[in-house]
């Protein structure tokens, strides 16, 4: 009896075929990591640490090139595919005139708000670069990612006008509160204050960095939801967005690399910062350059690793960068931006668990709390995905399965109500027709 009662409160839901995009996103992130460096290790899938892995701006430079190249290819491929499908649509003859049932993408284009499109592109580039640079410096512990939950949910309701049901609110609210508390307990002193003091020279700068990260969470949440609206409501191709992000990002990074290359000529900088040195130390730089990158490549003396990096790692890195961002955009397009948070939570949870297993310091409270945070986030998101159903207090009333069942039930009831009316109308028509025929026949007899 007890098991049956327990099962009635919590159960398993249904998997949507669109959830495969979450798996694709996670797989592409893992592939991108393994090309450059395996998490928790100091080497990649080819058993060495590529030179590219130490150059943040150069990695971004290649990333935007991949957006331009593959975004263009996939965009024109999708256009040709749509044209082929249009040619295969059926035709009918109406009064001697050939009519075609054609879905034309041009017929669905609306007036594009250029300011919205530009905002999406610029804010996305800002987000990508802030994350890359700050993580390289070592500020990743300042990233209170749980604020993305609050801001994304808010903008989905405001801009996209999508209702968030009670079971989703419970899932997202629990996720935010628990992980916010764990983040404060695990990192506010050991990881954040100390890092700010080592890098910036004053621990109180940590408040500014935290504020900047929260502002960035606000910005990217707004951007992703706005991107969802222009793709779905303004019929902007996701591949066109990828292409223009590549263009803007390429120009921005190129300018930074040019200035950093000129700046580095004044200082003989032979090392790259690890994040522990004071900022703007003249013997170290956080902003790499083309001369530094190619000089580091030459130092490999054209060994086997040099050729593997140039001929295999760099091309694979281009593909991995595009796939990772492509599936992020498709998650927004087919689902909504919250599913990116689900994908990131699962991915970083896997990385944290692997790192915890292979490291020696397993009793460190910070490492334990980090793994616990990711596990709780994963379980909470399963409720949002409706893979876990909360079957008490009517929390499962508005899950996808129940809404579908109610819709089917209402459809069947409407059909039952309509069917007698149709039969009654048919009987009346038959009676009228019979009387009409009788009258005509009687008249002929007369």
Secondary structure layout plus pairing:
Layout: H1 2-9, E1 10-12, H2 20-36, H3 56-87, E2 91-94, E3 97-100, H4 114-137, H5 147-158, H6 166-200, H7 205-232, H8 238-266, H9 290-298, H10 304-334, H11 338-358, H12 365-384, E4 388-390, H13 400-445
Antiparallel strand pairs: 1-4, 2-3
Helix pairs in contact: 2-10, 2-11, 3-8, 3-10, 4-7, 4-8, 5-7, 6-12, 11-12
Write a structural description:
70% of the residues lie in helices and 3% in strands. With 446 residues, it is mainly alpha-helical. It has one domain. A two-stranded antiparallel ribbon has the order 1-4. It has a two-stranded antiparallel sheet with strand order 2-3. β2 (91-94) and β3 form a beta hairpin.
Radius of gyration: 29 Å
Strand content: under 5%
Please give the oligomerization state of what you see.
single chain
Instruction: Name the overall outline.
Output: globular
Task: Outline the biggest β-sheet.
Answer: 2 strands, antiparallel
Global mean pLDDT: 78
Number of helices: 13
Can you count the beta strands?
4
- Category by helix and strand content: mainly alpha
Question: What number of structural domains do the residues give?
Answer: 1
Order of helices and strands: HEHHEEHHHHHHHHHEH
State the helical fraction.
55-70%
